[in-house]
Amino acid sequence: MKVQPRTLRQCACWLLLSLSLSACFVRPYRFDLIQGNDISTESISLIHAGMSEEEVRYILGTPMLHDVFHTNRWDYVYLEKPNEGEEIRRHLAIYFENGYVEKITQDPLPEVA
């Protein structure tokens, strides 16, 4: 039995079309992205008014953001973008007066189970 050239060409076209369309449905792998300072409730609870800049740096590490317009404020930012699910953002700002902690502001942190 001889295969018709037209039938062979049609099969090749359908195969090529189906392979090219199937590439549109494949989602590429996206890795988990974690950036910034890991801010935990435990480490924030250790920070209080009157602490020196060195003590804060020892507990939380060096802040990721340095604002040239607000040199008395340190911003600690954390961003986590998992492959699947919602992204997590956290922000902590520590204000200093004469080298000592004056006040702390932060986003509400989620409770860790």
TrEMBL record:
Segments forming domain Outer membrane protein assembly factor BamE: 36-103
Swiss-Prot/TrEMBL keywords: Cell outer membrane, Lipoprotein, Membrane, Palmitate, Signal
InterPro entries: BamE, BamE-like, BamE_dom
Cellular compartment(s): Cell outer membrane
Pfam families to which the protein is assigned, alphabetical: BamE (PF04355)
GO molecular-function terms, A-Z: protein-macromolecule adaptor activity
Top-level taxon of origin: Bacteria
Membrane topology: Lipid-anchor
GO cellular component, one term: Bam protein complex
Gene Ontology BP, a term: protein insertion into membrane
Broad class of where this protein is predominantly found: membrane
Keyword Signal attributed: yes
Oligomer and partners: Part of the Bam complex.
Function: Part of the outer membrane protein assembly complex, which is involved in assembly and insertion of beta-barrel proteins into the outer membrane.
Family, per entry: Belongs to the BamE family.
Protein name, entry field: Outer membrane protein assembly factor BamE
Species of provenance: Candidatus Berkiella aquae
Name of the coding gene: bamE
